[in-house]
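$ ./design --mode recover --in tokens.txt
reading tokens...
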């Protein structure tokens, strides 16, 4: 057995300590994703409807993971707007 696996040597993964931001412009899908993630023990920090909105939310409340729709209604500008400048 590899060290740290099932021996109590590893730190337990606490899903509640990981925050996720959902970036989705379809409100029904966003609510479904939020419900699914929360039912599996993850903490959802919020829902953003655009890449720009996601950047604002992340600036105010940093998160561990961003789950982002790459086909946002704003098109490529909405997605690339969420990327850091080169």
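writing sequence...
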């Amino acid at each position: 057995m590899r060290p740290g696996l099932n021996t109590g040597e590893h730190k337990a993964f606490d899903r509640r300590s990981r925050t996720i931001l959902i970036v989705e412009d379809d409100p029904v899908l966003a609510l479904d994703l939020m419900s699914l993630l929360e039912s599996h023990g993850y903490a959802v920090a919020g829902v953003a409807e655009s890449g720009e909105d996601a950047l604002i939310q992340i600036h105010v409340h940093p998160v561990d993971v961003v789950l982002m729709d790459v086909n946002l209604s704003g098109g490529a500008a909405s997605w690339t707007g969420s990327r850091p400048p080169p």
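exit 0
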